[in-house]
Amino acid sequence: MKAGTAFFCTMIVALWAAPPALSSELLSSMKGSWIGNGWVKRNPGGPRETVRCRITNHYVTAGRRLVVSGKCAVPGKKFELKGTVSANLSGTRISGRWSNPFGIGSTSVEGTLFANQAFLDFKAPLDGSKKPVRQQMIWQKKSRGFTITNQLSGTGQSKLGSIEFEQN
């Protein structure tokens, strides 16, 4: 598994879309154990790979911060994930710092919360490349969990993955 796939999986476990006024409450509602299933691509033209994740989230009230740790797997590869995400005071922005042991190291992420979605922008290399590429994650709240979609920024929404999470 290359850096792009691993980073997408790192990002998928770290944030939940929230209405701006309630972002802290919704981040706190993410505490607990989650299971995710879906697909990812290493690059826009690549094949879909099945991905499965198990994560545990802890909410820290001071700083409105969600601390994430877990494990994901694609065929032939397992890896650990770690990250944090915090809502700003107004609840309209969210930011964090993520660590991925497979290639990209540590990177910052930030985005905007709107209704039941979050739009999170970041840069990370795709499969076979060392050059960071602008990407966007869209987090969609569902009644029993959430769905996260990853796409390249500014390319007609070329999807790189989609994973659905349910509480364990």
Give a quick precis of the structure.
The chain has 168 residues and is mostly beta strands. The chain has two helices and ten strands; from the N terminus they run H-H-E-E-E-E-E-E-E-E-E-E. 38% of the residues are buried.
Would you kindly provide a written description of the structure presented here, covering whatever features stand out?
About 6% of the residues have low confidence. This protein is mainly beta. It has one domain. The chain is 10% helix and 58% strand. Strand 6 and strand 7 form a beta hairpin. The longest helix is centred in the N-terminal third of the chain and has 10 residues. It has a ten-stranded antiparallel beta barrel with strand order 1-2-3-4-5-6-7-8-9-10. The protein is built from two helices and ten strands.
The geometry reads as: globular
Q: Uncertain segments of ≥5 residues (pLDDT<50)? A: 13-22
Compute the number of structural domains: 1
Q: How much beta, percentage-wise?
A: over 45%
Distance between the termini: 26 Å
Largest sheet: 10 strands, antiparallel, barrel
Which range best describes the helical content: under 10%, 10-25%, 25-40%, 40-55%, 55-70% or over 70%?
under 10%
| Count of DSSP H/I helices | 2
Structural class: mainly beta
Mean of all residue-level pLDDT scores? 78
Number of strands: 10
Gyration radius over CA: 14 Å
Q: Write out the strand line-up for the largest beta sheet, numbering strands in chain order.
A: 1-2-3-4-5-6-7-8-9-10
Task: Give the helices and strands as they follow along the chain.
Answer: HHEEEEEEEEEE
